[in-house]
Specification:
D-3-phosphoglycerate dehydrogenase, Rossmann fold, seven-stranded parallel β-sheet, oxidoreductase, 34% helix, NAD binding, D-isomer_DH_NAD-bd, 2 domains, single chain
Length: 333
């Protein structure tokens, strides 16, 4: 019997490809979607045993043709790019890798908070241009200690962020669809409040929730108007959660002090996105989990789950309604 086949859907660099291959278990071959032409894709899809992707948009076009694939493994957390109803229809369990990216996203959140509070991009640019603005920005620069950090979403990533913010001396409050276990609250002296209370009481607000129908456009004009004028907003969750037009107006009119944006309504965003013109915005290209350390954890979890299924067990971390791996339908040997 030949090696099992894993099909990876996202684009890779040579360095990233080497990391993927380094994590691949023995007894498996890894194929790369973006290295194939259309005919090769049509040929390989019915043959592969496992589907693996990070952010590739996946739906019926893939699920309907992957006749022998056992399940779909997502690297990372968010599954808004996967048509879960289609996965259900074609009998695919869809798994993610919870917790593996929490440290990277939490650290980026703290980095953005500090950079906004100390105007780091501005200071870097003006200093290199020959200006010596040693005193000009002190009245509008801040420390984290003693501030109230409101987290919207208190799962793995939210709690890891709160842990770091609490270490800086921030007071932790949070809103989530579900109140956290008491031990999590006690460890961080965190207080569970309503969304409105978090918005009105926080000096720092960071988002750590999935993009769902009920969270799409959650932060709009009304919510931004509830925030303090000196408050900052950091979005490392999903772009569709924040209404960008409303955020632009709030920032331009200085109704809030600043924003760190790692995720966008459209990715990549248009080059003329008006948020790019604002000095009080830090923009990054969805790199919350973009570290070598996170990648190693995510791939380890993903490939361990594939090995689990290959041994006849059910996949872990399934996010849709199908819990058991599919049976192979035809032989392609």
């Amino acid at each position: 019997m030949g090696n099992k086949k894993i099909l990876y859907f996202d684009r890779t660099t040579e360095e990233f490809k080497a990391i993927l291959l380094g994590h691949k278990p023995s007894g498996f071959d890894l194929y790369f979607w973006h290295e194939m032409d259309d005919n090769e894709r049509e040929r390989i899809l019915p043959e592969v045993d496992y589907l693996l992707a990070a952010t590739h948009k996946t739906g019926e076009e893939i699920f309907s043709k992957a006749a022998n694939a056992k399940f779909f493994q997502k690297t990372g957390i968010g599954v808004d790019h996967i048509d879960l109803s289609s996965a259900d229809t074609y009998g695919f369990p869809v798994s993610n890798t919870p917790g593996a990216n929490a440290t990277g996203v939490a650290e980026l959140t703290i980095l953005m908070i500090l950079a906004l509070y100390r105007k780091l991009p501005l200071m870097n640019r003006t200093t290199k241009s020959g200006k010596w603005e040693m005193w000009e920005h002190r009245p509008t620069s801040f420390e984290v200690e003693g501030k109230t950090h409101g987290l919207i979403g208190f799962g793995n990533i939210g709690r890891q962020t709160a842990k770091r913010s609490h270490a800086f001396g921030a007071n932790i409050i949070y809103y989530d669809a579900f109140q956290a276990a008491s031990e999590h609250e006690e460890a961080l002296d965190a207080k569970f409040l309503s969304l409105e209370e978090v918005l009105t009481q926080s000096d720092i607000i960071s988002l750590h929730i999935p993009l769902l129908p009920e969270t799409k456009g959650l932060i709009g004009k009304q919510e931004l108007e509830l925030m303090k004028q000196h408050a900052i907003l950091v979005n490392v969750a999903r772009g569709g959660i924040v209404q960008e037009d409303a955020l632009y107006q709030a920032l331009k009119e200085r109704k809030i002090a600043g924003a760190g944006i790692d995720v966008w309504e459209q990715e990549p965003p248009q080059v003329n996105n008006p948020l790019f013109d604002l000095e009080n915005v830090i923009a990054t290209p969805h790199i919350g989990a973009g570290t070598r350390d996170t990648l190693n954890r995510v791939l380890k979890t993903a490939f361990q789950n594939i090995l689990r299924v290959e041994k006849g067990q059910s996949p872990e971390f399934v996010v849709n309604n199908v819990k058991q791996p599919r049976e192979r339908k035809v032989s392609t040997e």
